[in-house]
Known about the structure:
This protein has a single domain (8-216), classed as Rossmann fold. It contains six helices and twelve strands. The protein is globular and about 65 Å long. A hairpin with a 6-residue loop joins β5 and β6. The strands form three sheets. Strands 1, 4, 5, 6, 7, 8, 9 and 10 form an eight-stranded mixed beta sheet that branches. It has a two-stranded antiparallel sheet with strand order 2-3. It has a two-stranded antiparallel ribbon with strand order 11-12. It is of the alpha/beta class. α1 (20-30) runs antiparallel to α2 (36-54).
Amino acid sequence: MTIVAISPAARPHVHLIDHPLVQHKLTLMRKKEASTNSFRSLLNELSSLMAYEVTRDMATQDVQIETPLEVMQAKMIDGKKLVFVSILRAGNGILDGMLSVVPGARVGHIGLYRDHETLQAVEYYFKMPKEMESRDVVVVDPMLATGNSAVAAITRIKQCKPKSIKFMCLLTAPVGINTLHEAHPDVEIYTAAIDRELNEHGYILPGLGDAGDRIFGTQ
Length: 219
């Protein structure tokens, strides 16, 4: 088992989303008896709730609109400047909930699989929107375990030179936080829970199992 304390330097970059609704839905997802349909539905709801926190500091601009009574200046965001990047395959389970909050956001995909011998990430697919230099990126993956996939994904995305990058996950563990922070100290992490440790296979404990298998019913 891998037990690692979170380094003090990494803590300011970790945002624990502890809203009661988030924690309630996460608890329901953790239960081993949760069906595929239930797990997928809860993930959609939970990711929508987390999206509000991740996008809290999004820039807005004043636009002129007309209400039924008069003309006024009102604030709007430009969703087209935001990119949600899914780490395949499990990251796709988060996208619908995120897009329900910011439907104008663009979507990128990066395909990675974990080598079960080395636990290192291997890339097999990469597709991003154009003009990434003007866009803010939120990378999504249900689990931040060893941190190797997140580091590989963010390293690759940085080659596109986006304005900013955040990482959002349901669960993480101290070793994943430290790994990501050491490689990319500028990337803030948003998570619903920081669990105890990893087992010998690199899975989070107590965790919720393999998120991809539970989303797509491939257990």
